[in-house]
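Q: What would this chain look like folded?
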Amino acid sequence: MPLKAELHCHIEGAAHPDLVLRQARKYDADPSPFIRDGVFVWHDFTSFLAAYDFSAGLFRSEEDYALLADHYLTSLARDGAIYSEIFISPDHAAGAGLSAKAYTDALGEGIARATARTGIEGRMIVVGLRHAGVEAVEKAARFAAKCGNALVTGFGMAGDERVGDLEDYVRAFEIAREAGLGITVHAGELVGWESVAAALEHIRPSRIGHGVRAVENPDLVRRIAERGVVLECCPGSNIALGVFPDFAGHPLPELKRAGCKVTLNSDDPPYFRTSLKREYDIGRDHFGMDDKALTALTRTAIEAAFVDRKTKAALLARLGR
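A: My prediction, written as C-alpha cells:
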C-alpha cells in the first residue's frame, strides 16, 4: 500500500457520519433527514449544503473541534497517510460562537494529538469564502497572517466560483503572501477554464484547488505545466457533483500526460462516499496507476506542501527519497 498525502480537504466536510451521530446525541439534534444507514443523504447541491451545514453546526466547542481534527487525521494515518493539510474557515468559528483564534487553536490541538499518536504531520490553510465578499476574504487573510499558530501555513479561497471577479481578491492574497503563507485558490471546478486562467493571472498561486476544467483549453494546460502549478485534484468529488460524467471521462490522466503536477485529494470525503484511500484506489483502478506512480503523486504533494524545509525533508525520506 503506497504512503499517501492530502492537500485539499475541508475539515467540517470531513466529519464522518459516526462522529456526527455522536455529536447529534450530545446536542440533542435530529440527524435523520441527513444521515440514513450510516451515510449522508443528499441529491443536489442545495441538499448537500443542508447536510453539510447541519453537521458543521454540531461542532460548537473547542473540544468538539479538537475531536474533529484528531478523528480525521487519525483515520488518514490508519489508511497510510503521512501528511495532511486541512482547510479551516474562521466563518465557521463565528457560527459556533467561538473566536477565530479559539477555533484555530482547537483544531491545532486535535492535529497535535493525532501526530503524537500516529506520527502523521498536519497543517492548516485558512480559507476565505468567495461568496462572502472581498471584505470577508481580506479579514480571513489578515487573521491567517497574524494568528500566530505555527500550524497555519497557508491561505486560500473557497466558495462559489460564480461570484465576483478574482482580480477583486488580489489584496487578500497579497496580505497572506507578505506574511510568508503558501497560496492556493479554488478554481476550475464548477466553472470552466476561464476561472483557472484568472487565478493564474491575478492570484499567482503555487497550487490550485481542483483546476481540472483547465483541460478545456490546451494553451492553459501548457501554461500550468510550464509554471509548475500543482493541481489539487479530487476525482471522487468531481464525479459525485457531476463535474464529469464518470471516471473514464475525468481529465487527471490527460493533465498528467501533458506535464501538469497533479495530486489526489478527498475534498469533503463522507459526503461523496470517498476517502483519501479510495482516491488512491481510483488512481489504481480507473487511471491505471501502479504503486510507483501513486507514490510519485504523494511525492508531488509533499514537495508542494506548505510546510518547513526540515519537515518536508523528513516526509520525503519516509517515501524513500
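The beta strands are 4-6, 35-36, 39-40, 81-88, 121-129, 152-158, 182-187, 207-210, 230-233, 261-264.
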